[in-house]
User: Fold Alginate lyase family protein from Methylomonas fluvii.
Amino acid sequence: MKPEFRAMDRSILSGNPGTDKTALLLPPFAAWSPTEVLAHFRQRAVDNYFPLNPGKAKHVASAASILENQFTLNNETHRLGNGFDWLHNPSADLEWLILLHKFYYGRDLALAYEYSGDEGYADKWVALISAWIKQVPDGFVNSQVTGRRLQQWLLTYHYFVPGRHCQAISAEFLLAFLQSIQSQALFLSRNLTPEGNHRTIELSAIFTVAIIFPELSASAELLAFAQRELLANLRQDFLADGVQKELSTDYHHTVLKNFLRVRELADLNGVSLPEPFDAVIGKALEFSIYAHKPDGWLPAINDGDVNSYLSLLGKAERYYPSDALRYVLSQGKQGQPPTQHSRLFADSGYCILRSAWGERPYTDGRYLFFDCGDLGFGSHGHYDLLSFEMAAFGRSLVVDPGRYTYHEHDGDGVNWRHAFKGTAAHNTVKIDGQDQMAYQCHAPVGPQPHAAVIRFESNQGFDFVHGRALSPRYEVDHQRSIFFAENEYWIISDLLSGCASHRYQQFFHLPPPSPAPIQQLNNRQGQGICLPNLLIVQAPRAEVAMHIESGWFSPEYGVKHAAPVLSFSQEGDGIRWFQTVLYPYRDDAPDIQIDSLPVSQSQHLATPMQAMALSITLKTSDTVYRDCFFVSHLNKPAEYRFADIVCRAKLLFVRRNLLGEIVSLQADAAESLSIVGRTLLDSIDKPVMLNYRLNPTKPTLSAVWERAA
Assistant:
């Protein structure tokens, strides 16, 4: 397989494309002999580059296979012959060949050499690069591959040349290496990807070449170009809320890492960057602080792997110190927590609902990442509007399955790219068996679905987000609200409105199974399951069917593990609801009972199903709570009646103890409220938010009434 590539018109290069030193190097270096040039680069100070990590025995082990031309890339291994063809792909997946040309494996050779001093690793590095230079035109595959390769070549160069007397490095090789470096950098400057993470990688590579090799004839031109374009690209790459516009948590950090490299190199070399540069990076770091789960891992939203970028944040802290960053890096032992515990990033549509930062141990924190954003720029968006990932007590409990592959066709006949990218692979609702968008592997085509946050509210004891998704593929309006009750558990309410009859499937993707089996709850408790550290429960309804199906989870590219999927399904026309309680627990699951509460509303509005209420009873070894939750997705105000409550509000949560005393009460867009016949809020013109807790000195309903009045 030989992919299409863009070959560079070498006439656009400054000077001769060969190794003519007069075209390659500035004076006085151009007049030096090759031996003198090699001596210069060997003796030159290296304090203008990143600190180098020491080699370890593990790098020697990893490099052993490379010596034999055996490459394991994206968890797929191929052994290539001596003098192999760089343009031939032994894999059916183009990503394998792309990784071969990015040269990440060169780092193992360099670190093995640093650790052992064995010249065989240097000989192999020189042989691979020399063969690549002879066979491969500039721009093979695409520009971002060139950018990645330049970064790896410059990294490994520092292990073999500056301050070294490596016998494998000849003067002729060094000149050919420098010529190729300059040629590739010039190619990038004239063939930049228009936008996105690829452009950032390419500009970072150009900047690095220009900084590291001021002796090259094109370096001044390349540095001026990179400085000018980097700021414009930084502003283009990140949304106003600090989230990278491809809306992938992984690629957000890829871009952030490249801009941080630019910042560090600029600092090491006394190069100034414009002030707006730091402001944008600061916002990008804020998103990273919130996006990392309490256990330090990052959810793989859209394309990407399950990663932790805390080490990257540790490097960033040197240039962008903050109490919040130090707090997250130290797991609450240093610094100060962020001012908000939950956060909406409005431009991306990403929302994190989490428990207080002061949770101890830190990893016990409850965390939910809600994706209420569009697909994002480019091809990395999954069809996952209104999906989420949830973690608590140091474990990911409801997961995004990941990406697995960019390759569509496999020998088993399954389109795995679609299987992981489609709507059914996410924790949302699939309608009539259709994806939210017509499937395309590499880029969205045609009308796209749209998601938006309707309401977000977060303060002490009150966290709520309400989102909406519309797809051109069907006429259904999907609204999902998530309420975080008492910093303890989540209530997810899905309202699905359509004129015709539709089939609705709601999915919860679970991590690969633990030794403890999934337990199905009994009818008294509700319809749902008990997992280690998590209850997923709905009120029993005859029209809703529950199934446990087989699914997949991919923590990294090319790797997938079997994992269970819980689904609830129903069919019908008009308005349909799913209301789901997600209750995480540390040790012992509480005895839970979920029941639907009949809701009625004022006579002039004949849409009672746009509001629903739940009764949630929670029993532990030392407490019993009876929670009542109500939510309406109706825009017009109405008076609702359920249980012993009458209210005009869009959301209400009431917790009572075993004696019937109100422990806490939260309401959103409330105009009036009475409980057991006692008026707590008189009818008012302007809706308000209520957030009250029982006064321990007045453990009666009147305590709440006095504070609400």
Q: What stands out?
A: The chain has 16 helices and 28 strands. Residues 1-18, 699-709 have pLDDT under 50 and may be disordered.
